[in-house]
Prior knowledge:
The structure holds 2 protein chains of 2 kinds.
Chain A: H1 2-22, H2 34-59, H3 63-73, H4 77-91, H5 100-131, H6 133-150, H7 156-159, E1 160-165, E2 167-170, E3 173-176, E4 179-183, H8 187-196, E5 198-204, H9 207-214, H10 216-230, E6 244-247, E7 254-258, H11 265-273, H12 289-295
Antiparallel strand pairs in A: 1-5, 2-3, 3-4, 5-7, 6-7
Chain B: E1 8-14, E2 27-29, H1 33-47, E3 50-53, E4 58-63
Parallel strand pairs in B: 1-2
Antiparallel strand pairs in B: 1-4, 3-4
Amino acid sequence: MDKYISVILVGLIAGFIVRIILLKSDYRHYPAYPHGYFTHLALGFIAASLGAVAIPAIAKPDFVAVTFLVLAAQQFREIRNMERETLLKLEETKIISRGSDYIEGIARVFEARNYLVILTALATSGTVQWLGWQYGIIVALVCMFISAKLMKGPQIGKIADVIEAEIHFDGPILMVEDVVIGNVGMQQTRDKMLSEGIAVLIKPFDDDARLTLHSPGQRMAIIHDVASILGTKVDINEPELAPMARKNVDKGYIGFFIVPNEPDIEMLIEIIKRVPVLETARGTALKSHLGRKAAD
Amino acid sequence: MATEVSGLILAIVTTDVNKAAGGGCPIFVAADLEEQVKMSMYLSRITGGVVHDLGNGVYFIFKH
């Protein structure tokens, strides 16, 4: 029994540490409240204990317990629903919304993190069981490293170039270089946009990137991330200064325009480069035979 | 969940009544450009729509 306790304990601690590492609240403001943290830490603890007791249960051997563990693992599917529902509810009161693609991405990540916790706990406790706790700690460290690596998906900076661009008006039409953004009626608003607005062009490197940026969900994610860091001068019932990302339909690059509270163009470029490429928006044209043929 | 109408012209503001007729939304006739701009701004602030310019002296408020 003593042996099992050390096996379970090391696995549990390793899994729980992975959950803490992966639970960082960043600029996306989520989760940003203590209760959210607590919920996820508690679920992470449960996930870690599930992974940690699996090996001792098999070693004992208690196959009924193993079956129950598999059943319990199913519960983590609920996390995705929980996150999705919360974020969709919050969306109703947001002026700049995240968009359902972004929400789906976040929800999936939260679910996947718990599976990583289970796997870490499982691998660690297995190693402790058969090789001893010293090796267990090494495996735990390797798992933490891999988990952190796995959870860091591709970012816009990897698939596209972000360059500063000029805002101008063609009659009432707001343009970022040669990308048409929209029609602005009021002279007063136009002056404000010209003096306080900043803009960039997001130029995709290849056809896959172009398709990714083509997705409105991906563009909403970019707008949300920028607006939540640099701020925006949109208000309730005053949507005229809304940040916008529009495509040059001929050339496929994106013109992005915002009137921020912090007009810092370098930071704008940096923020856009760090926006995650959404799983649901990722273009994969070049992975198909016909896509590659069409591209040349 | 709140339901909101969008994708709709809420009002037309013009100085020349001959350039807008009929249709399903109110048409406001302004005496001059200054009044037109002012009316458009008030209307957009109240309705939460955006002022657009047709380029021929007709402004309209559109709910996006």
